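chain below, 239 aa
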Amino acid sequence: MHAILDEIRSSLKERADPSRAESGKRFFREEVTAYGLKTAEVTKLSRSYLPALKTMEKTGIFALCEELLAAGYLEESFIAAAWLPHFSDRFEKADLILFENWIDSYITNWATCDTFCNHTVGSFLVQYPDCSTRLFSWAESGNRWLRRAAAVSFIVPARKGDFLDAVFWIADILLEDTDDLVQKGYGWLLKEASRKHRDEIFWYVQKKKQRMPRTALRYAIELMPDEMRREAMKKDWKR
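prediction:
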């Protein structure tokens, strides 16, 4: 095992708070494993290793990140997800398949999914926008976390107004998904896209609301003015 992994795990164990770890489980319906550290503590720990990582080859960095993700601890997964965007200048197109495999194999809760996808996959998409269509197949996966990942990976660029066509493609594929965590994921994506494309998102919701689950709809319109939200919530289609 790499010395950095040993050091990180020793530090996490020293700071572990079992009572905090237990209380944090209320935010998840899935079984999660955690040391019980505060996010600020984990962030500080992750940053302390960046200088050492920057001297390493990409393959070594990715191997460390995979070890952390595979361990199944929330904090270790967070560290991997915090590291990777710092090395986005080393990303290659082939890495998207690796990221897909990591999500499929190691991600088992919404927090790890969102942290990893918002920043690591999101950074990749900004660098290689022509690879974005690969995520359409994620949206059709039998793995709920890949389906959620298909949406939340676009969150950061969509917030800036980018990838609007992809936003609509993903939302169309996920439109009638019965998993509420997937519904919340694509609803959140539509909400973030509405920051720069409010009218387009509003008309999309209006057109799709008869089939769109109310959970997704409420997320999608959250940032809109009251009048728009009321209009979107109306069940005004012909029966």
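The radius of gyration is 19 Å. The chain is about 65% helix and 0% strand.
thats it, cya
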